[in-house]
Amino acid sequence: MVVPMDTDNKFFNVGLLLVATLIAAKLISALILPRSRKRLPPVVSTLPVVGGLLRFLKGPIVMLREEYPKLGSVFTLNLLNKKITFLIGPEVSAHFFKASESDLSQQEVYQFNVPTFGPGVVFDVDYTIRQEQFRFFTEALRVTKLKGYVDQMVMEAEDYFSKWGDSGEVDLKYELEHLIILTASRCLLGREVREKLFDDVSALFHDLDNGMLPISVIFPYLPIPAHRRRDQARKKLAAIFASIISSRKLAAKSEDDMLQSFIDSKYKDGRPTTEAEVTGLLIAALFAGQHTSSITSTWTGAYLLSNKKYLTEVLDEQKNLMGKHGDKVDHDILSEMDVLYRCIKEALRLHPPLIMLLRSSHSDFSVTTRDGKEYDIPKGHIVATSPAFANRLPHIYKDPDTYDPNRFAAGREEDKLAGAFSYISFGGGRHGCLGEPFAYLQIKAIWSRLLRNFELELISPFPEIDWNAMVVGVKGKVMVRYKRQQLPVN
Ligand code: HEM
């Protein structure tokens, strides 16, 4: 009897243990495991294997337009062996912009820039060095330096437009691209390049540019002719800058440009920059600033010349400033051009040239959407946000597809009402654009000169967006009829 009782007890105990284990497992899984499973973002439904790639190749913005209304502000796309989680809107993208490099890094996702920028700079170095190199950018773009650059920008613009006839027709897109290469050469690459080597250096930059194709993002070292030309151009540029740098050092000459600023920069341990690093940083600056600025100048023009109301407002502002300062334009006068500033900012809201920003996630994090849904984004995901999509969210911007520069004016300030990261054409937070003031000054210097000296009329249809470009810009020509005419003073 005892034995069976014991056996019964044993069975009873084992049974109890089993039930307890099951309940515990159920509880644990309810509390922990499924929590991360349950709270994973919804996934874009696609065909198996290559479906995600096909959706992405159709155009990331097309995909966002289709999926955002269905899935909301946080969702994941399976792209081959990667998971890309999109965070759209200020409510869910704060972590994207604020996280430390150890949590969300740029290095892996922007690796494709390495063969273009060259070794030893930016995404080829670890974060501590990169931070120091970004400090060099910050120093090169300080207000005191910007004041000097503005004088050069104004000179370049005056010189360039003085070569236009009294009247005629031009492709505004081509003209502004060209002028911005000249200005960027002068302010960033320096006098030697601008005065003596402009044609050679711009041809080499052209090869670098053409070597950055959509395929280069996935296979930056693929042995294709465009990449070979890129690598040769990179080598030749390094040789040209090495010679300029050493002759500046030899002559103990100092200039007022970004090149000089990078030559004079020192790491925290006292080490000066090498010639190769200076070359790489200059290339990075040109890649960051040139297309982005010329595209924005062109959109600004297209909108101003298609909107009489805003054209009149910017012209009035120019007339008032001319009444106050004469025809002079310098850093401080450009800083008074608030109406023009808002017109540029609005063109850039509608058409941010960098349409997608990326990070690689190294630790799990959670986000809460504006309707209170919580999602956990696991480490290992690529995390993305999109200025082109987020800048047009209707709960932030009234009539988001309408060009309305006054949405940024005092009293409305739609970009501030919804909090930080509502306007992300320049990114924001930890990696926000370091060239934003430079870009505005450059675009204002160009447009104030055009508005003061010419009557302009857009004669081609309003331009379309060239979604296929790496830096998304204006498709086709933007034909403008001009007549030289001095703006009257108020
Ligand atoms: C309209 C013109 C411009 C636009 C729209 C623009 C846009 C941006 C954006 C969106 C980012 C953030 C990228 C990210 O978060 O992944 C960025 C970063 C950066 N930009 Fe610009 N940019 C412009 C002009 C310039 C110019 C003129 C320069 C320099 C001369 C410049 C230098 C930089 C640098 C160095 C960074 C990296 C900052 C960091 O990672 O800490 N940009 N820019």
From TrEMBL:
GO terms for biological process: methylation; sterol biosynthetic process. Keywords: Heme, Iron, Lipid biosynthesis, Lipid metabolism, Membrane, Metal-binding, Methyltransferase, Monooxygenase, Oxidoreductase, Steroid biosynthesis, Steroid metabolism, Sterol biosynthesis, Sterol metabolism, Transferase, Transmembrane, Transmembrane helix. It comes from the Eukaryota. Its cofactor is heme. The chain crosses the membrane at residues 12-33. The keyword Lipid biosynthesis applies. This is sterol 14alpha-demethylase. The gene is LOC116200779.
